[in-house]
Amino acid sequence: MGKQMTEMLKGTLEGIVLAILSGRSAYGYEITAWLRDQGFSDIAEGTIYALLVRIEQRGLVDVEKVPSEKGPPRKVYSLNAQGRAYLEEFWKTWSFLTERLEQLREEGS
Amino acid sequence: MGKQMTEMLKGTLEGIVLAILSGRSAYGYEITAWLRDQGFSDIAEGTIYALLVRIEQRGLVDVEKVPSEKGPPRKVYSLNAQGRAYLEEFWKTWSFLTERLEQLREEGS
DNA sequence: TTCAGCTATTCGGTGTTGCTATGTACCAGT
DNA sequence: ACTGGTACATAGCAACACCGAATAGCTGAA
Predict the structure, then answer these.
(1) A64 falls in which pLDDT band (50, 70, 90)?
(2) Of all helices (H) and strands (E), which one includes residue B73?
(3) Per residue, what are the HEC states of A12-69?
(4) Which end of chain A is more exposed for a tag (fewer CB within 10 A), N or C?
(5) Are A17 and A31 in contact (CB under 8 A)?
(6) Taking the model in full, what pTM does it have?
(7) B64 by DSSP, 3-state: which?
(8) What backbone torsions phi and psi does residue A68 show, to the nearest 5 degrees?
(9) How confident is the model at residue B108 (pLDDT cuts 50, 70, 90)?
(10) How far apart are CA A62 and CA B74, in angstroms?
(11) CB atoms near residue A2 (< 10 Å)
């Protein structure tokens, strides 16, 4: 969708991925494919992998290497307790933002 | 609110300021004060001024210098036609994001 | 057998953005 | 003179998403 989306994804993409992982474990390639499917057509593969490395280093997810039938081994990520707490914080921050913006939008119309 | 908010504001803060300006003209100091009042307690003054310079250079706003009784002259910004079009785009992008996230949130609960 | 194509991950370099810290300047009241 | 509120500007920094390219395993067609 362009530059606006790129900038808006900063900060939220992390939350999106954590939210996905809160439902089920997943690996990078899979997450990227799912996001593209959901309309995030221009999300770069490299972006997701970098993000996954980041949240792993922060201790928000656990990782398990699982062999694949169709290619190199997958790195399967799952949200741990710390990750869930962080995701909670994310939702709070997100809620705050959406409330302010919703208010501004109503005023503007 | 912390680091999460800082990252989330990237991309949205611009939209917030444009949305404010769509309702009425305003100057930097005023906008900063208003944002703090609305709960964006940690938004830095410099951030707003830099943002205003940016959107001016992109031709989204018109500027008028107005003398103040209480200090140096104010730079009063008002949204022009191009700015309104850009704000429309912003709302579309924002809507898309909120819909996806709302969906993810429901699935997670 | 080789080569294209899908699966799957990694990494270096770039541009944009918000924050920190600091500086400038104007004015009123003490 | 000095403090404090008003008002704007800017240099340096960190974080993040994007781009492009590389690596590597597997399968099926030529």
Answers:
(1) very high
(2) none
(3) HHHHHHHHHHHHCCEEHHHHHHHHHHCCCCCCCHHHHHHHHHHHHHCCCEEEEEECCC
(4) C
(5) yes
(6) 0.94
(7) strand
(8) -110, 150
(9) confident
(10) 53
(11) 9
A90 contacts B16? CB cut-off 8 A: no
Asked if residues B100 and A16 have their Cβ atoms less than 8 Å apart, the reply is yes
Q: How does DSSP classify residue A2?
A: -
The per-residue pLDDT for A109 is: 72
Question: Among candidates A39, A21, A22, B49, which has minimal Cα distance to A30?
Answer: A21
Task: Please state, in angstroms and rounded to a whole number, the distance separating the CA atoms of residues B95 and B58.
Answer: 23
pLDDT at B8 over 90: yes
The H helix count followed by the E strand count for chain B is: 4, 3
User: Which letter does DSSP use for residue B47 in this model?
Assistant: H
Any idea how long chain A is? 109
Looking at the DSSP bridge assignments, the partners of residue A61 are: A79
- CA closest to C1' of D19 belongs to A44
Nearest nt (C1') to A52 (CA)? C9
- If pLDDT is split at 50, 70 and 90, which confidence band does A69 have? confident
Cβ-defined contact of A15 to B40 (cutoff 8 Å): no
Bases of chain C below 7 A from a protein C-beta are 6-12, 16-22, 25-28
Query: Which residues does A27 contact at the CB level (< 8 Å), separation at least 6?
Result: A66, A74, A75, A76, A77
The model's pLDDT over B26-58, given as tens digits with 9 standing for 90+, comes to 999 999 999 999 999 889 999 999 999 999 999
